[in-house]
Amino acid sequence: MLVSSNVTMQFGSKPLFENISVKFGGGNRYGLIGANGSGKSTFMKILGGDLEPTLGNVSLDPNERIGKLRQDQFAFEEFSVLDTVIMGHGELWEVKQERDRIYSLAEMSEEDGYKVADLEVLYGEMDGYSAEARAGELLLGVGIPVEQHYGPMSEVAPGWKLRVLLAQALFSNPDILLLDEPTNNLDIDTIRWLEQTLNDRDSTMIIISHDRHFLNMVCTHMADLDYGELRVYPGNYDEYMTAATQARERLLADNAKKKAQIADLQSFVSRFSANASKSRQATSRARQIDKIKLDEVKASSRQNPFIRFEQDKKLFRNALEVEALAKGFDNGPLFKNVNLLLEVGEKL
């Protein structure tokens, strides 16, 4: 389980988000969503240990491994494509490197022999003997042809390097998987393959994506970063949209009822506070007003763009009016006596 406790991130005088406490686990697949600039990638870096928060902390179960989609596609230029994928499992890669080093020695000491024997046991327990085959299957899944598997990363096109890094993130099959925009640079067939691959796994996942269809197909929960806070909703993206909209509408409706109640009570107090026979009732109503608390409705970080067309003249009800229209050529009339009235909002 990955736990965020009171995490706050601040740049300058205003926090990007604050006091985020949430638990990610249970094999759930969370879509981390929010407006551009709301802090999704920043929060993901904090979860992955790549960035320290201003306040708070993130903890991972000591018996669990975390994997993440790296964005530094030029960091593995001197390695082969297959080795780059296998490096996704850090412990396996370290064992493989030390094992290969000992076997490459011109002369192996007795101590080296004991050590490599222990390494062989670890290598087998980590399914190291099938590592290249498993890495190759993932590379084929993300569209990297076989002839490139043993070649250097330096010969892979930049956009395709990201596919290799996606295979790297998937390779270790970690307990917690962090994926920031995994569908970037993928064609539709590869995206469908990725959807199936993720759905077949038991890992807890946190995914950032602008692909709503992908989120609908993969995610079991949505984590919405908005208003400087994080709210988790069960369900995919479409289900989240329904639930979030209904929750906000209920909040606004409750506030509207409270405001109406306050107005009624205030009206009574204003009318009868000076009336000796009803002053006690007016005082009671004033106390009721003090007890009514409006729920805070924070401004969303989402912005809905629109285009405003300014027009000097008022648009009349009739958008188009045609009377006795005719058209023809030398060989005869094409049409004649056409009459048409099209009102605003109608579609022809």
From TrEMBL:
Any GO MF annotation of the entry: ATP hydrolysis activity
Matching PROSITE patterns: ABC_TRANSPORTER_2
Domain of life of the organism encoding this protein: Bacteria
InterPro entries: AAA+_ATPase, ABC_tran_Xtn, ABC_transporter-like_ATP-bd, ABCF, P-loop_NTPase
Record bears the keyword Aminoacyl-tRNA synthetase: no
Domain named ABC transporter: residues: 2-252
Keywords on record: ATP-binding, Nucleotide-binding, Repeat
Name under which the protein is recorded: ABC-F family ATPase
Organism lineage string: Bacteria, Pseudomonadati, Pseudomonadota, Gammaproteobacteria, Enterobacterales
